[in-house]
Design goal:
Helices cover 39% and strands 22% of the residues. Helix 1 packs across helix 9, helix 9 packs antiparallel against helix 10 and helix 10 crosses helix 11. It has one domain: Ribokinase (UDP-N-acetylmuramoyl-L-alanine:D-glutamate ligase). The chain has 11 helices and 14 strands. The strands form 2 sheets. Strands 5-4-1-8-9-10-11-12-13-14 form a 10-stranded mixed β-sheet, sandwiched between helices. Strands 3-2-6-7 form a 4-stranded mixed β-sheet. Strand 4, helix 2 and strand 5 form a beta-alpha-beta unit. It is α/β, with parallel strands linked by helices.
Length: 319
C-alpha cells in the first residue's frame, strides 16, 4: 500500500481510569494512545490510506500497536522495532477539572528514533506528512528526525500538517516555541490548540493567533478551541466552526481525532471548511466514550450526527 498520509510520532499504550467501583476498587481500561497514532486511526477510519513512522520496542505494548494498526488497515512498513528500547505507556485519570496524564516515556523506542531512521523514499511518495509538537518534544534525537522528515517532504512537494500539542513536562516553553515556530514556517496545514498558543506566544485573542500563524506561511490554519469548536482561517477568509454538543465522557484524543478526520477529508478532495465541520463532529463523537482510540467514529456515525450539527448555530459564524 502507498500511504496518502504518513503520521510520524510516538505511540503509547494507554491505561484509562474507569469510574470508582462500588467496592472502592479502581480499574483501568487498556487501550492505545499517542497523538499521531490516534490521528492515524481517525484518518484510516474515514477511508484514507495511512502509514505510521515511528519506533516500537519488541515488547507487549509494541505488539499491541502492531495488531491495532493491522486491524485498522494502517501500513507499518515504516515502523522500526528494537530490542534495545521499550514502547512508552501512560495513565489517564479523571476528576472534576478534566482528564490528566501520567507518562512513562523516557528513552522509549520512539524517543530514540533518529534522523538516520527516517524513511526517505516513503515520504517522497506520500501526499501528506503529519506530525506534532509531541513528535518533536520527546527527545532531541526525535526532534532532529522530524526536521529531517519535513525537509524530505518539502523537497518532494509533499504537503505537511502540524499540530502543536505542547506538553510542558517534555520541554520548556521557550525551546518549544522556537522549535514549533521553525516547524510552522514549513507546513501547509497548521492545527494549533488555543491553550498551546496562549502559552507559547502570549497571545489571547483568537484572531491575533490566526494572524500569527498565517504570517509564518501555512495556507490553512485551524485553531482548535475544545468545547468552543474551531476557528478556521486562510489568507482570504475566516469562519468559526461550532462544536457539536455531546455528553462528554472522556476527551482524551479529541484533538487528534479532529486532526486525522480533517486531513482525511482534505485528502479526499474537500475544501477546508467542510473538512473542518466534519472533523468537529468526529471529535465531539469521540468524547462520548472512554479511551483515545475505541470511540473514534466512522463515516456512517458522523454522517448521522452531521444532520444535527448542520442545524446548530446555523452551521458556523462567518467573519
Amino acid at each position: 500500500m502507498t500511504a496518502e498520509l504518513l503520521c510520524m510520532g510516538e505511540p503509547m499504550l494507554e491505561f484509562n481510569q474507569l469510574p470508582l467501583q462500588p467496592d472502592g476498587a479502581r480499574h483501568y481500561l487498556e487501550g492505545h494512545g499517542g497523538d499521531t497514532s490516534n490521528a492515524a486511526v481517525a484518518a484510516a477510519r474515514q477511508g484514507t490510506a495511512v502509514g505510521m513512522i515511528t519506533g516500537l520496542g519488541r515488547d507487549m505494548p509494541g505488539d499491541s500497536f502492531m495488531a491495532l494498526w493491522q486491524r485498522e488497515g494502517i501500513d507499518t512498513s515504516t515502523v522500526t522495532r528494537t530490542e534495545r528500547y521499550l514502547t512508552g505507556v501512560y495513565f489517564v485519570t479523571h476528576d472534576e477539572t478534566g482528564h490528566h496524564f501520567l507518562h512513562y516515556r523516557t528513552n522509549s523506542a520512539a524517543a530514540m528514533y533518529g534522523p538516520d531512521d527516517v524513511p526517505v523514499e516513503a515520504i517522497s511518495r506520500t501526499r501528506m506528512l503529519y506530525l506534532s509538537g509531541i513528535s518533536q518534544g520527546i527527545s532531541t534525537m526525535a526532534c532532529d528526525a522530524t526536521m529531517a522528515a519535513m525537509d524530505v517532504a518539502r523537497r518532494n512537494g509533499v504537503k505537511i500538517a502540524y499540530d502543536t500539542n505542547y506538553r510542558p513536562r517534555l520541554w520548556p516553553p521557550a525551546r518549544a516555541a522556537a522549535v514549533m515556530r521553525a516547524a510552522m514556517e514549513t507546513v501547509d496545514y497548521a492545527m494549533p490548540g488555543i491553550e498551546d498558543v496562549q502559552t507559547l506566544t502570549g497571545l489571547t485573542d483568537p484572531d491575533a493567533m490566526l494572524d500569527y500563524y498565517l504570517k509564518l506561511g501555512p495556507g490553512v490554519v485551524v485553531l482548535k478551541m475544545g468545547g468552543a469548536g474551531a476557528y478556521l482561517a486562510t489568507p482570504e477568509a475566516r469562519i468559526r466552526i461550532p462544536a457539536l454538543p455531546v455528553r462528554t465522557v472522556d476527551a482524551t484524543g479529541a484533538g487528534d481525532t479532529f486532526c486525522g478526520s480533517f486531513l482525511a477529508r482534505i485528502l479526499a478532495g474537500d475544501s477546508p471548511e467542510p473538512a473542518a465541520r466534519y472533523a468537529a463532529v468526529a471529535a465531539a463523537l469521540k468524547c462520548t466514550g472512554y479511551g483515545a482510540v475505541a470511540p473514534i467514529p466512522r463515516p456512517a456515525q458522523i454522517a448521522r450526527a452531521m444532520l444535527a450539527y448542520e442545524a446548530s448555530e446555523d452551521g458556523g459564524l462567518r467573519s
